[in-house]
Structure formats: structure tokens, C-alpha cells
Amino acid sequence: MSERKTKTKIVADNTPVQEAISRKTYLSDEELEYFRKLILKRRGEALEDIDQMNSRLEDAQEQAEGYTYHMADSGTDAMEREMLYLMISRQQKFVGYLDRALERIKQKTYGVCKITGKPIPKERLEAVPHTETTVEAKLEEKKKNTNVGKAESSGRVEYQEEDS
What we know:
The chain has helices spanning about 30-65, 70-105, 120-125, 135-145; strands spanning about 5-10, 15-20, 160-164. The longest helix has about 40 residues, at about 30-65. The protein has a domain at about 35-110: DksA, coiled-coil domain (Four Helix Bundle (Hemerythrin (Met), subunit A)). It has four helices and three strands. Helices cover about 55% and strands about 10% of the residues. Helix 1 (about 30-65) runs antiparallel to helix 2 (about 70-105). A three-stranded antiparallel sheet has the order 2-1-3, with no helix packed on it. By secondary structure, the protein is mainly alpha-helical. Strand 1 (about 5-10) and strand 2 form a beta hairpin.
């Protein structure tokens, strides 16, 4: 097996950006279709959740307008609304991840780690169908991010040679 060198560019927010490397999927068309359907199902569920939370938020706001509450009640209601906003935001972000996964399926790059170029195990894709990395790459990336010095956070751009 040959080693391929890639350049990783460290940008201001300390996120490594792989330079364009074409990585085609190892999955068959049937497997890609299976994951496309799985992702669409999860996407539909997430959109349903967003709709339900938006309805709850509207109900809570209408209720709050109709009554004069004690200050403590008002604070509790505000916390509940804030929690709903956060949950909606999180679900919207999740839908974005699912949309990107659908795009990778369309491009036939789904199931390939964006960091290492290695196949992502099907078990991981089943559990986290929007994933872009293997577990090992994710852990390594997390480890690197915890060891990042302050120099990179200054906005300076650096290049590192990595084997992948």
C-alpha cells in the first residue's frame, strides 16, 4: 500500500482543510441508495421535530402574551423558550449535516473519511449516517485540537506535511 502525502492548511480557526483530493466511495450503488433512504428518513424526522418545536414555541409565546405572570413564572417561561430555540437550532444544524451527506452520496464520495481517505465502516455509517470521518480520525483530530497552541489562533496561516 502506497503512502500519499497531503498538505494540510491550518486556517485562522485552527481547522485543518484538506486540499482537493478526489476520493471515490467504496460503496455499491445499492448501498448508496440504502444510505440515501436512511438519511432522507432521518432528515424527515428532524424536520418534523423542528415543526413541532416551532408550534410549541408559538403556543408558549401566545400564552405569555395573554397572562400577567409572577416574575418567577416569567423567568421559567423565558428559559423554556430559550431551550426551544436552542433545540431548533441544533436540529437545523443536523439537517445541514444530513444535506451534506446527501450531496456526498450524489458525488459518490460518501463513506470515505475526509481526513484520511480511508473507508468509514458501514457500522459507523449506520449509527451516524452524516459522519465525514472514521472514529480514529475524529479522535486524532480532537487530540490535535486540544494541543493547538495560541500562535495558530492569532490568524496566522501555517502549512504542515502529513502522511495519510
